Amino acid sequence: MSLRSLFVDFNSYFASVEQQVDPALRGRPVGVAPVMAETTCCIAASVEAKTFGVRTGTLVREARKLCPHIAIVPAQPSLYVEYHHRLKDAIETCIPIDYVGSIDEVACELLGRERVRANAVAIARNIKAAVRGVGDWLRCSVGIAPNHFLSKTATDMQKPDGLVVLEESDLPHALHRLELSDLCGIGPNMEQRLHAGGIRTVAQLCALDADAMREIWGGIEGERFFDALHGQWQAHRESVRASLGHSHVLGPEWRTPTGARAVLKKLLVKAAMRLRHEGYVAQALTVRVRHLGADAWHGEVRFDATDDSREFLRQLAHALEQRDRHTLRLPLRGGKPVPLAVGVTLHRLQPRDASTGSLFVNETKSRAVSGVLDRINQRYGGNTLYFGSMQGALEAAPMRIPFSTIPNPQIERDVEHNELWLKRMREFKRLAEAAHLRG
User: CATH code for 243-426?
Assistant: First the structure.
């Protein structure tokens, strides 16, 4: 068993990028929030903020209590995507990237003499220098191990700016000081299952054999976890996309039935554009609405395979009719139910080329219209052309960065494009009204 994996994790990534582009934030505790509101949570915290106990998921108001002098800044997803690609290019001057785990982590496979410890460490140091070359306030932790699972685990064992090597002789005792939740793949539910099986420490977990892990995991994934934990090489498996969607917590101005519908339509049209870009069709749509003062609701509709935005919007209308009937029966806790968060998911996906489409509808014209809309919006900015029912929500639901997907800048340009356009239109209206009053 030799060293075969080198994993790179960018430290406090969103917050570090903010500190890189704004020198006034350097050395200060920084929290990054999706919107500037005390009731939202931090989606990132700088190294300095973490020393005060501020973490990802900490409410902004709680972050201010933990660290009164913290700087809360609004997220800039397009900036993080730009730096992600710059950092990827820098790393690939040192070693090819095997796969991208998320916007702040990449994995590389070591080959030949790269697997010699001294050579692997030299590559890691070159990567660190390359990252600092992109921005002198950017840092990364590097893990080197027999497989990607262990090298990713190693990046969390020394932060920030760490470099940890786990060789065969280090296993498994080097892992014993970790918590179960520190291991990738052990979330709250799996941790409960392990506890139910009498496993409460990593040392106890490492002592299990493959059959015991298979029983706890309930299948082959238990054996895979056993192999990963004990250093067996596992080639990266590309995940098969099963669904595609977007969700958004509504700002106060959108917490009406009309506002929620408009935001849902914008989310759905964006999802449809991504679906076509990735070459899929969908056969089902799930809609979710979380309420203040009432229980959450979700509904699903199924249909012939399609990638047409107009058909999706028709199906959304059917789903929302179900919700309207449902809300009449909700056990309210004071007044009418107020929509708080909404989400749409397209699922039962299949590659477009593998789909026969609808047996009853000729989709050629619809697909041509959708293609024209996509090309215009990609060239001139998202929502240059849009469905009229979305107009009220053009400023809502800007770009977000999910855990394992890097947003496509061509598809997501609607954030900067529309916000700038709307600001200019409001300013033009204000000046026109002022001129009218003067004249």
Answer: 3.30.1490.100
Q: Where are the domains of the chain?
A: 5-163, 171-229, 243-426
pLDDT at 428 over 70: no
- Which among 84, 94, 23 has a CA at the least distance from the CA of 404? 84
In the chain, % of residues over pLDDT 90: 56
Distance between CA 201 and CA 26 in Å, rounded? Answer: 38
Residue 417 near residue 383 (C-beta atoms within 8 A): yes
C-alpha separations of 229 from 179, 220, 379 in Å? 14, 14, 47
Structure tokens at 348: 């039962």
Has 167 been annotated as catalytic?
Answer: no
**Pairing verdict, β 243-249 and 163-165:** unpaired
SS3 assignment, position 27: coil
Name the active-site residue from 105, 109, 311, 412: 105
Q: Which two tokens mark 44?
A: 């990132």
Q: Are 94 and 127 in contact (CB under 8 A)?
A: yes
Q: What architecture is the 5-163 domain classified under in CATH? A: 3-Layer(aba) Sandwich (3.40)
The b/e string for 114-153 (b: 16+ C-beta within 10 A; e otherwise) is: bbeeeebbebbeebbebbeebbebbbbbbbbbbbbbbbbb
Distance in angstroms (rounded) separating the CA atoms of residues 91 and 96: 8
Average pLDDT over residues 65-92: 95
Tokens 């002592």 found at: 207
Q: Would you list the DSSP string of 297-346? A: EEEEEEEEEE--HHHHHHHHHHHHHHHHHHHTT---SSSS-EEEEEEEEE
pTM for the model stands at 0.70
- Summarised one tens digit per residue, pLDDT across range 181-226 is 999 989 999 999 999 999 999 999 999 999 999 999 999 999 999 9
Q: With both helix axes pointing from N to C terminus, report the angle between 117-134 and 77-91 in degrees, rounded to the nearest 10.
A: 140
Strands 30-33 and 71-74: parallel
Label residue 193 left, alpha or beta by phi (over 0 means left) and psi (-120 to 50 means alpha). alpha
| pLDDT higher than 70, residue 374 | no
